[in-house]
Each structure stands twice: as structure tokens, then as C-alpha cells.
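Please go through this protein, sequence plus C-alpha cells, and consider how the sequence yields the C-alpha cells. Keep your notes short.
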Amino acid sequence: MVPAILILTFAWTISEVTNGLLGAKFFVADAMQSVAEGFANFLPAVIFLVACGLAFATGTSWGTFGILIPIVVGTFGVDAGTILTIGLGACLAGAVMGDHCSPISDTTILASTGAQCYHLNHVKTQLPYALTVAAVSFVNYIIAGIIQNVVIDLIIAFASMFAVLMLMRFVFDKKTVGAAEK
């Protein structure tokens, strides 16, 4: 448990330095406000990317929630309706995705410790799955920002994820058959 405790201590230290000393929340707030003016329909996708990056860099989804949710609500306004819901969903999804891919995340470190594997190997095995879902999510947040209908976008998101999975299955089955013939 000593390596896991040391890694967690270092991860929490980096998180405190990023949020407390460097003022990450103020930097992110300024960046979001400058983007919000020109790209209102693309803002959910931008929020998703910012949340992914911030959670990956700090190793905490809850810390990212604490930083970004007030910014998202302030950017859209409390009475914004559907676009606020989509923006908050993008914030939450991006933070969880970044946290799961981060090598300094406490959940990643503890999961790899519990499985008794080297935590960077755990990160490497999660990346293909997380990045596939993140790519599909990013495209769907662009669509959601344009359509602004949660039900329709949810149907599109399910269909697009299904299509990507079937495409991957087709590609990998074709590679497996080709390798077996050689």
C-alpha cells in the first residue's frame, strides 16, 4: 500500500498546486468566457474538452466539477433551459472521462492497486475505450449544441455509438481474418 499512498499524496499535492497556487479556476473561467461569445452552439463540445483536459491534468473529477459547474451556469445563465442541461452534461462527462484516463487520479491508482497491476498499464488499457467514447461524445455535443433537443440528441448519440462499435467490429474482424489467412 505504500506506493499507492505515495502516488495519491503526490497527486493531491499536484491538484492543490494547480487549483490553489496557480489559479486554474480563474484561467479556465476567462478562457470559457472568451470562447462563449463567438461559439455559443459549439460551447457544449468546448466545455467537454476543457473538462477532459482539466480532469486529466489534476486527476480529479470532483475538483473539475467544483471549478467548471459554476462557470457553466454563469456562462449560460440559470434560466437557459436545454442548453444549460447539455452544458452541464458535457462538464460532468468530460470530467469523468479525464479522471479515468489520468495516471494521477486517485480512482485509477486505487483500481490498479486493487487489481495488483502497475497503474500505467491500467491507464494504457483504459485509453482506447475511453477515447473512443470521448470522440463519439464530442461529436454528439456539437450536434446537441446545434439541435438543442435532449431526446433527439440522445437517440442520435445511441445510434452513432452503435455505428462506431459496428464499424470497429467490422474492421477488427477483417484484420483477424486477414491475419489468420497468412
Notes: The longest helix spans residues 150-181. The helical segments are 2-21, 24-36, 43-58, 61-76, 82-101, 106-114, 119-147, 150-181.
